[in-house]
From TrEMBL:
Keywords for the protein's UniProt record, in alphabetical order: DNA-binding
Recorded GO MF terms: ATP binding; ATP hydrolysis activity; DNA binding
SMART domains xref list: AAA, Trans_reg_C
UniProt record, GO biological process: phosphorelay signal transduction system; regulation of DNA-templated transcription
Alphabetical list of InterPro entries matching this protein: AAA+_ATPase, ATPase_AAA_core, OmpR/PhoB-type_DNA-bd, P-loop_NTPase, Sig_transdc_resp-reg_C-effctor, WH-like_DNA-bd_sf
Domain OmpR/PhoB-type: 3-96
Annotated protein name in UniProt: AAA family ATPase
The entry's DNA-binding region: 3-96
Gene3D superfamilies, per the entry: P-loop containing nucleotide triphosphate hydrolases, Winged helix-like DNA-binding domain superfamily/Winged helix DNA-binding domain
Length: 429
């Protein structure tokens, strides 16, 4: 696969990394706005019809044109009002001179895995699934550690598959053609193919997976995604957050839990003198619980502890998730801030699903669907939207409770922020 860099005016767009730079400074765009810009610059000044933009950026979804107009308005504020030209009644085109350059990014062996915390059972379970199923999808919320687990699965199987293990990152793929191009570089004889970050091209990935499995009877596929492929041969492994102690545990016991162990390791990597002990373990446990045991959130929180302390980071969460940023340069751009990661996932939802998710945030604790009121159009659409939100780990369901639905702490904080941004922002991610 080739990675394209587009240069227009003072800007440089890196689709593979989902980065927009201006003079070396990164500019943050909402997920759908980035996708709209990608389509416009890829056409390099050629008119793009509204219908084509809607079909490419919101594949398979019924979306009103005003959603597109919101993103165009945001892009003009970022790039300059004259950067995008409107052709009345037809579409939009980039008005800045644009050039592109290509760099080769072939499929290759899996990246070396980092240490894995609290995932021993998950690793063994995934290995067992791959011994009995030809297609396994690791499904879970953003930042839960799907890629990390897949790297360890691939590493464990590398020898038994005679080294014929290939890793393909689909994070920058937007269309079926992108997926086809990525898989065209997979060497014949591959025994295990890992397709990482298949979220926004799940339909195209499903089609290619079905074709590959039919053509290569010895092939195994491992997919990481927030959106399952819905294939007959697919075995879904739902990855939950790391375990967190209930509280009152001494440090030596609490560190046996994955969330606490990860937090300790990541803080110590930045401050070698740091150590969780019986004096601070209670605060650490509260922080882990507040962050739902989500590995990405814990990594970002750990990066702030040397400057703010455990108590300071915990208190900052009362004001939102904005302190949780500053991830490593090795991480994808959307994983360098928790809000960006959540916004990426939110952008994969249809507008009605986004609106329902934000409406749920105003409900206290555990709730039932009848508490949402009568604003949702149609029971069938409501059930479909709820099914999607639960399936993609936006909403937690516990059938043993009389009020069976809830949002995680981080999810509720994000959704409330979306509500505060107003109705326009609800459809602009």
């Amino acid at each position: 696969m080739s990675s394209t860099i587009y240069r227009f005016g003072p800007f440089a767009l890196h689709p593979a990394q989902r980065r927009l730079l201006a003079g070396g400074t990164e500019i943050v765009l909402q997920a759908r706005a980035f996708d709209v810009l990608h389509v416009l610059v890829a056409r390099q000044g050629v008119l793009v019809l509204k219908r084509e933009l809607l079909d490419t950026v919101w594949p398979g979804a019924v979306v009103e044109e005003n959603n597109l107009q919101v993103h165009i308005s945001q892009l003009r504020k970022t790039l300059g009002h004259d950067a995008i030209k409107t052709v009345p009644g037809r579409g939009y085109q980039l008005a800045l001179p644009c050039a592109s350059e290509e760099t080769a990014v072939p499929a290759g062996p899996p990246p070396s895995p980092a240490l894995l915390y609290g995932r021993d059972d998950d690793l063994e379970d995934c290995l067992d699934l791959l011994r009995n199923a030809r297609l396994v999808s690791i499904v879970g919320a953003t930042g839960v550690g799907k890629t990390s687990l897949a790297r360890h699965v691939a590493a464990r199987l590398h020898v038994s598959f005679d080294g014929r293990v290939t890793w393909v990152d689909l994070a920058h793929a937007m269309t079926a053609a992108d997926v086809e191009a990525a898989l065209a570089r997979v060497e014949p004889g591959c025994r295990l193919l890992v397709l990482d970050n298949a979220d926004q091209v799940s339909n195209a990935t499903a089609q290619e997976a079905e074709r590959l499995l039919a053509q290569a009877p010895a092939l195994r596929l491992l997919v990481t995604t927030q959106v399952r492929l819905n294939l007959r041969e697919e075995s879904v492994y739902r990855l939950a957050s790391l375990a967190v102690p209930t509280g009152g545990n001494p440090a030596v016991e609490a560190l046996k839990y994955g969330a606490v162990a990860l937090l300790q390791a990541r803080i110590a990597a930045r401050d070698r003198h740091f150590m969780l002990d019986d004096g601070n373990i209670g605060t650490a446990i509260r922080l882990c619980r507040r962050l739902d045991g989500l590995p990405l959130a814990l990594e970002l929180a750990a990066a702030r502890v040397p400057a703010f302390g455990l108590e300071g980071v915990l208190r900052s969460l009362d004001d939102g998730l904005f302190l949780l940023s500053g991830g490593t340069h090795a991480a994808p751009p959307r994983h360098r801030a928790l809000h960006s990661a959540l916004d990426w996932s939110y952008g994969l939802l249809r507008p009605g699903e986004q609106a329902l998710y934000c409406a749920m945030a105003r409900l206290p604790g555990w709730f039932a669907l009848d508490q949402l009121g009568s604003g949702t159009a149609g029971r069938t659409s409501l059930f479909d939207a709820v099914d999607t939100l639960v399936d993609r780990a936006f909403v937690v369901f516990d059938g043993a409770r009389p009020r069976p639905y809830t949002l995680t702490e981080t999810g509720r904080a994000f959704a409330l922020a979306k509500r505060r941004n107003g109705a326009a922002s609800l459809q602009a991610s």
